[in-house]
Amino acid sequence: MAVCVAVIAKENYPLYIRSVPTQNELKFHYTVHTSLDVVEEKVSAVGKALADQRELYLGLLYPTEDYKNIFFKIKHGK
Amino acid sequence: MSPTQWDLPPELCCRPLAFVALTGLDVVYNAVHRAIWDAFCANRRADRVPISFKVLPGDHEYPKCRTKRTSYEWYIPKGILKTGWMNKHLNLVPALVVLFYELDWDDPQWKEKQSECATKVEIVRTSLQGRNTKVAVVLIQKKTPLPPGEDVVASERASALCNACDLSGKSLFVLPHTDHLVGYIIRLENAFYEHAQTYYYTEIRRVKSHKEFLNKTTHQLLFVRHQFKTGFFSELKQDTQNALKYYRTAYGLVHELRAHETNMLEIKTMAGFINYKICRLCFQHNTPLDAIAQFRKHIDLCKKKIGSAELAFEHTAWMSKQFQSFGDLFDEAIKVGLTAIQTQNPGFYYQQAAYYAQERKQQAGQLCSHEPNVGYPTPDPLDTPGAALDFYGQRAWRQGHQSIDPPDPEKEKKGILALQLKEKDIPHSVRVQTDFVILILFSSKDPVKKMLCPSHRHTHMVQMGEEYYHAKDYTKALKLLDYVMCDYRMERWWSLLTSILGTALKCSYLMGHVKDYITYSMELVGRASTLHSEQKSRIEKNLIKVLMNEVPDPEPECDPLSVKAARALWNERVSLAGSNEFTIEVQDYVPFVQCKAKFLSPSFHVDDPVQLNVYLRADCPHPLRFSKLCISLSNQEYNQYCVVEEPCNSKDILEPSIQENMCLVPGKIRKYSFKFVARFEDVGKKIEITGVDLMLGSDSGRCVYLNWRGGGGDAASSHEALQASRSFKRRGPASDSLVNWDTVTIQASTMVISRVPKVSLQLRHEPPALNNEMYCITVTIESQENTAAKDVKLTAGLKPGQDANLTQTTHVTMNGGEMCDDSHPALLPDIPIGDLQPGQKMKKSLFARCVTTGSRIFLFHVSYTMNTSVEGKEITCKCHKDETVTLETVVPFEVAVKFVSTKFENLDRVHVDVPFLLMTDILSASPWPLHLVTSQLQLAPTMAAIDQPESQVEEIVLQTGESASECFSLKCPPVPTGTSSVASGQYVVSWKRKSTCAETPVISTVVTLPHVMVETIPLYVHADLPSFGRVRESLPVRYCMQNRTGLVQDVEMTVEPSDAFMFSGLKQVRIRILPGAEQEMLYNFYPLMAGYQSLPVLNITLMRFPSVAPALLRRFLPSRIFVKPQGRPGDASIAAA
């Protein structure tokens, strides 16, 4: 079950972030924030080749203790 | 319960080494034995075999071997692994016992010694009864042994000794105590290592052999135990591949165990141990991904196995430890060369460890908050009869109990209570300290250690900050939170920022830090905060209290004791006078008041007032009053004009309008306009807003200045402006009818520029300029000012900043009657003109002389001062107006010169004393008519005029493209021998533009005439004859020949016959001419035909100078003559001729 959805700007700040109402919504925010470095690493590692193929799925980022973080890269404009 | 209860036992974490016991060595008193022992254990390098040696006395009691079980039928195991087992096989039960005995082969008391040795061996054997431990004997000998086979006595006695001691030949060694001790020792220990490996192999076999007796129902625990043991023995045997295999099986088996609340801890403990072994071996085998996969599996399998809910904190403590140990293993692997990546690094595991540790504390808080009257149960249920538990992971009050229900519920309750009370007493600051060490480790400069990626590190720091907060170390908490705050603010993670600001606010409240309290509050009530409005409202009310020098209400969820202490601190602050003024630099925060300042224009004329607006907007939930707004400008003299201040001590008589002016209503934009007259000295300078200060509170209470550097803006505003410019959709129509906040841009600086001049500058001239002429540019200055322009000054001439050569080749003057020379400057600065009344015109002429051709820019700059009033203030303005003109300079005319003979034939050389002509040709290149005043030929001494040369082009006007020619008859006086060319002199043309007036000076252009080749000839010949002849009438011709040498010359002269003439005279003659003398020859020619006729050719041959060709001489003579036809009869005039 998806518990948290976040849309992140390319400057790494959240455009939209919603999670299932639990006591600790903030924890999800921290988790998303923590994942950004990994996203950056993934994006830079695959680099141009990926951009050309328009492959937007970044895959399973890394498993945390209880959740799995999956990211898509979305192109906006040019 | 010690804090280290969850630590893995050291015997689990170490690398197992084969254990070999050495006996019979007296390392204290015997130097030889000491040396042998040192050779075994000192400085063991990595290439030595992995053995752990221990010196034991010969009669050492080894752990007793329990009697072997023959049947498992009625056996019910009490636990998985005994706590002493690993240590027993690492340090207590040797794989091999080596007996050292001093005995030489030729010892005189051989027999006695042999039996003594056999006795010693027997003692060891007895002590090891029932174990497979090997025994070996080493004979320490003084003599170097002979090569094998040569010493017959030795081999005999060796086999005898073996028999006596019941040893195989492979277990008897000789250690000669000589120079090469270490070499012998290394050979010895290699042999020991083989024995040890055999021992561990048999142990593995022995453990495996039990398997057939086990059944799955009652002996589940033994399956795990035996697999673990075989794994451990394999490690001791250094067979890590098989060890890993056994451990993996053991790991699978441990999860097959029937788990219930009473044995959960034991299962988890063992799973943790085995997992640790597997991960450790995977890293050792350089397969880190296997290790990570195993660890993930382990965590997935175990994280739900919480066990007793009342002891949930135990589970989180255990989880924390699991992550920490794995982090340690990972870190170790990195230290020996593994490369970490951002996604997989020890930091991540440490972070999880910290997270669980935090959770443990929370659970402890929930589960262990017993009433104070609940005492620790007696007798202590955690007390064990022995020093430690028998089995890993069991409860002290029911050791060995393996059934589902606890044997005694009352005991169980007491045990749990005891554990809870112990947990409560754990000093959490200890944990914070260790976490802090980790933090230091990961934020250190060492790149290897810098494995945590930034956001991980931040999260970690937040966790630690909160830890410190809970540990009541607020200073450290704030230090950490402040650090992370900046980054979250920059990254615009407002939810995270708000969360830590909340903690920081609590810290500052509890410490009574007024300034920090204000700083955090103003951000928490501002637009970056994600708090609900009621929370914001509460914080703002507190903030207002602080501003009024009152004690704020405590933050919610604070420890009541701390709140009490904080109250006292705040009361102290209130009574404390003096330190009640704070300045907060809000530029780097997102404060609850936004500020933007702008000059209305990027530049202001000095005669216009400088205008600037300051926009303020409050984002807090309640209206806010301020007491002062002041703007600081780069020139502080203007600051006095940019202040909004409440008139002091006059609160009662305040007009409502002003009061409203000093109040910021949430969401509403306030505009404050300021206006001042710039100072005359600031013309050409920048005025900058260096800061905006907003004073909150009052002088009497607390006073806080919010200070914006420059023209306002804060940590979030630049991004907001960018967003606003990108999107068309605003946040709805501007509520304020005046401005839309997003469209207000900051303009923090402006220029003061001079007043717009009201004068006109007209230039009149006739381009292009001619080279060297006095080129006249007339400038007309007309004032359109309303008042007198005073102190008018004109700067005219070559515009500065062009090619440096132009300055040298351009000269200007205001005096048209004189000729410019090098002493004249290129630019005439500040020529005083006096005053110009309104409407008055002034005309000035500038004369420029351009020595070289090309283009130049001329500048005309008029400056003046005048008085004017701005906003009722009299000011003196300086105005200036510039005009430039680009001027091309061209040559006025070209002069061509050529030398021709008297027959107008081009000469490439002239002859001494033979007349020739100099022709000059002046071709006008000027677009304007040129007036040639005169010309003059200035001959060099090597040239002489035949008659007085007079100018033939005087007062001639040349239009464009026209040319004027002159012709001068010259000759070249005799030259010294050897001279081949001579100078001719100069040709001076005096001219001016036709359009100039009479007093304009005449320009003399000097043209240097070319050098000419000169030659001396030995004989000069010329002819005298009339200008024309007439048919059938006599034509007298005289040829004169002049000898120009100092020698007598013989000359042969012939006249060739011609069809056109008959003639009389000597047709062929040879004459002698004396030096310098002249010989005349007379002829009468009689023309026969009319028209141009060739004269009979005269050939002169010089006998002495055969090189002089007749043709050369012929050039001096006329070749043709015009012959008129015969006149009519009766024409007297013709008859007479």
From TrEMBL, chain A:
Its main location: cytoplasm. InterPro entries: Longin-like_dom_sf, Sedlin. Keywords: ER-Golgi transport, Transport. The keyword Transport applies. One of its GO terms (cellular component) is perinuclear region of cytoplasm. The keyword Transport applies. Belongs to the TRAPP small subunits family. Sedlin subfamily. This is Trafficking protein particle complex subunit 2-like protein. The gene is TRAPPC2L.
Automatic annotation (TrEMBL), chain B:
It holds the Pfam family Gryzun-like. GO terms for biological process: vesicle-mediated transport. Transmembrane segments: none annotated. InterPro entries: TPC11 (IPR021773), TRAPPC11_C (IPR025876). Coiled coil: none annotated. Keywords: ER-Golgi transport, Golgi apparatus, Transport. Residues 1043-1100 form the Trafficking protein particle complex subunit 11 C-terminal domain. Residues 263-526 form the Trafficking protein particle complex subunit domain. One of its GO terms (cellular component) is Golgi apparatus. Involved in endoplasmic reticulum to Golgi apparatus trafficking at a very early stage. PANTHER family: FOIE GRAS, TRAFFICKING PROTEIN PARTICLE COMPLEX SUBUNIT 11. Belongs to the TRAPPC11 family. This is Trafficking protein particle complex subunit 11. It comes from Denticeps clupeoides (denticle herring).
